[in-house]
Design goal:
mainly beta; seven-stranded mixed β-sheet; six-stranded antiparallel β-sheet
């Protein structure tokens, strides 16, 4: 059986900023910059997220389309370590289409739910986050799924200033719409700085083996690549494009069945 999943995050419009005046300390010299932007309590951003997926060979085979509006805010910054915390509120969500057998209510239930999340000083997330006001296990599960999907657009940055052309690696996660989440290592490269916007290329590839209650035993490779844009003034602003592919085999009750999922996720300032 073969498992294929693809994610594409399509670049959005030029990033707008809603932050305090630029921090000159982030610019070490004319050729280097410190990434990410310095977090500050009160920084906000509203993001539009669109997910489209086509799953084949699963108990939830078929198309899945979700539009999501997320408002984010920096709620705390550790002055000693540079780590920071955020609150993400799922404001709007619409499931355009879903495959037979897919529980749409799991995703729709997250409307108005807020998720608290922590990041280290490099911008890398410290876990998928905790639902602040979930009223049910179903709502918590839906919130975790959506935050994990968005995690592929969040990478950590070097602790030292970098120049265009610099490369680094960052630990993170990659997920698909079925809820599978895999630890990966992002390979990143700074390719451009234009005005107050920077652009990085991201790629990753990771073999994994998991026992999934929906699909059975899955042995596969997850890989992806794309481009992300960030703001030098607001750590929360992001847009870009990531494509993701999962290739593998799933076995349930001794039976091997082909499984594939082609997906796209679009994220941009709303």
């Amino acid at each position: 059986m073969t498992l294929v999943a693809t994610f594409a995050v399509v670049a959005g419009p030029a990033l707008a900023t809603a932050a305090a005046a630029p921090d000159p300390a982030r610019h070490v010299d004319s050729a280097t910059i410190q990434l990410p932007a310095a977090p500050a309590v009160g920084q906000t951003a509203r993001l539009a997220v669109m997910v489209d997926s086509e799953i084949v060979g699963s108990t939830t085979a078929g198309p899945l389309s979700v539009d999501l509006g997320v408002s984010r805010e920096v709620t705390g910054v550790d002055a000693n370590t540079g780590a920071y915390s955020t609150r993400s509120v799922m404001e709007d969500i619409a499931v355009g289409q879903a495959p037979p057998g897919f529980d749409v209510s799991v995703l729709e239930s997250v409307r108005s739910m807020s998720v608290l999340q922590q990041f280290d000083a490099t911008g890398a997330p410290l876990g998928p986050g905790v639902a602040e006001n979930a009223v049910s296990d179903e709502q918590s599960d839906g919130g975790r799924r959506l935050m994990r999907l968005m995690a592929v657009t969040t990478v950590g940055y070097p602790s030292e200033p970098v120049a265009v052309g610099a490369s680094w690696s960052s630990s993170g996660t990659a997920s698909d719409t079925s809820g599978i989440s895999v630890d990966v290592v992002y390979q990143c490269r700074l390719v451009a700085v234009e005005g107050r916007t920077f652009t990085i290329e991201v790629s990753f590839a990771q073999d994994f083996s998991i026992a999934d209650p929906l699909h059975g035993q899955i042995d596969a490779t997850i890989s992806g690549q794309g481009t992300l844009q960030g703001s030098l003034d607001n750590v929360l602003l992001v847009s870009g494009a990531i494509t993701q592919t999962v290739d593998g085999v799933t076995t349930s009750n001794g039976v091997t069945t082909p499984l594939s999922a082609d997906s796209s996720i679009q994220i941009a300032p709303a």
